[in-house]
Amino acid sequence: MSQMTSQTHAIAPEDADRAVIYGFVGRLLQAPPSAGDMDVLRALTADETEMGLALKSLSEAAQSANVNSLKDEYNALFIGLGRGELVPYGSFYLTGFLNEKPLAELRADMGVLGIARADTVKEPEDHIAALLQCMEGLITGAFGEPATLPIQEKFFTCHIASWAPHFFKDLTAQNTSAFYAAVGALGGVLVALETEAFGMAG
């Protein structure tokens, strides 16, 4: 959802892993998965860490999921006739309304970091998918040089940690889609682990 460049940079393996998960969850929340995406999910292997178990649960959910049904589930959860079951925007979770002060603050910070919304994207920048993909780009250097940990932490703390745990909890708890409940659980683990890691690094 965000405007990324084709630049590539050498980053530490652990940072590359973080970026992959951010991008992975972000893309699952940006649009329903394709048949190819589902093949990848079904073939996932993972360890017994907290992240590994969340990935395993998502892979298991993908085994019985149908691509066409997931399109309907995605629509019901995030789009709906007037509004989906969940509203995946930071402003809404933080203020109860769309396009409020948190979005303006995000846009200001994105401007400083050289991140711009792609012309083809119509959704506000505080959509959870866009924010996760922003973190992916900050880690990999897609917007220039890889961002330092303090810059990553500031963006994460201000624009993701402030509301995403609540969103992922709601997504995990809904009964519309077992697949997206597993996506929510994975997102919740990601945010919790990142919060802990930034706390230890600070």
Automatic annotation (TrEMBL):
<dbReference type="Pfam" id="PF02613">
    <property type="entry name" value="Nitrate_red_del"/>
</dbReference>
<dbReference type="InterPro" id="IPR036411">
    <property type="entry name" value="TorD-like_sf"/>
</dbReference>
<protein>
    <submittedName>
        <fullName>Molecular chaperone TorD family protein</fullName>
    </submittedName>
</protein>
<dbReference type="InterPro" id="IPR020945">
    <property type="entry name" value="DMSO/NO3_reduct_chaperone"/>
</dbReference>
<keyword id="KW-0143">Chaperone</keyword>
<dbReference type="InterPro" id="IPR050289">
    <property type="entry name" value="TorD/DmsD_chaperones"/>
</dbReference>
